[in-house]
């Protein structure tokens, strides 16, 4: 029986930090180095972060995190894969994220995409996420995808990975 794999979008397969930095560069002419934002949650690191996330095109135009397409294509064959995003806080993000997924991950069907308000309701065997708030409440195996906001924190039993090659080594 295949294991159910839950994968986050923002910060795991979509480069949200790149989007924040791009928007800040356009607005303020600044481009924070990752060392300046390490250990800070997105809302601390980026003053207008919530405004940016509510802006049309923010999610739609994010870059794909390297290695995620190839790895998810393989994992989709070996696991019951679901892409799960706590997207309802920013309603326009749901349509943008779905369009983005269909364009960049065409092998993922609409039945494999779940938008919710909190991931506490999600059940599965394995979750890959970049936020402790989601992993800490998950009852299966947890994989913490490294991002600047979580780098200074202890893993708390989560298996930390730096990239999709490491995920492939763990799960394939």
TrEMBL record:
<dbReference type="InterPro" id="IPR010708">
    <property type="entry name" value="5'(3')-deoxyribonucleotidase"/>
</dbReference>
<dbReference type="Pfam" id="PF06941">
    <property type="entry name" value="NT5C"/>
</dbReference>
<comment type="similarity">
    <text>Belongs to the 5'(3')-deoxyribonucleotidase family.</text>
</comment>
<dbReference type="InterPro" id="IPR023214">
    <property type="entry name" value="HAD_sf"/>
</dbReference>
<dbReference type="InterPro" id="IPR036412">
    <property type="entry name" value="HAD-like_sf"/>
</dbReference>
<protein>
    <submittedName>
        <fullName>5'(3')-deoxyribonucleotidase</fullName>
    </submittedName>
</protein>
